[in-house]
Amino acid sequence: MMKKTFFAGLMLAFFAFSGCSTFAAMECPYVIEKPHVVLGKVSGKHNFAGAYFNVFNDSQKRVDSLTFSFMVYDKDGQNPFVGSNNIVSRCDDFIEASSAKEFCVNLDSYLSVVPDEPYLIDFLYLREIHYSDGSSWSDPFGMYASREVFE
Fold this sequence. Notes:
single chain, 151 residues, alpha+beta, 7 strands, 16% helix
């Protein structure tokens, strides 16, 4: 019995310490600034609503594409769409190393009614980043998601 308890404790310690080193190795290579929703027509971007984000590439590699993930709510905290309010959008555009760029996610295809007030954005993060050297970084579970609601 003592051997089983010792072995179980040893395994628990191994997984606990290996998990810490694995988590520490996964540093967030970006910063998102000024997330907001713009209503109305913006030529070449959207006719009714678009979610805008400035993304700072906090790495030494050039970004070739990235995938945003976020939730959209109305002013009452409700889902404003007929379908899901969980938006996942891939943007095939570049950001140089240690530079920032503004991105827009067109929300028109999710609308059934034109909103009177800008939507709120929550649980915003980059799900995946592809770099020009062929490498990638991913956060499939939103560990680096913002827990703040943005207007």
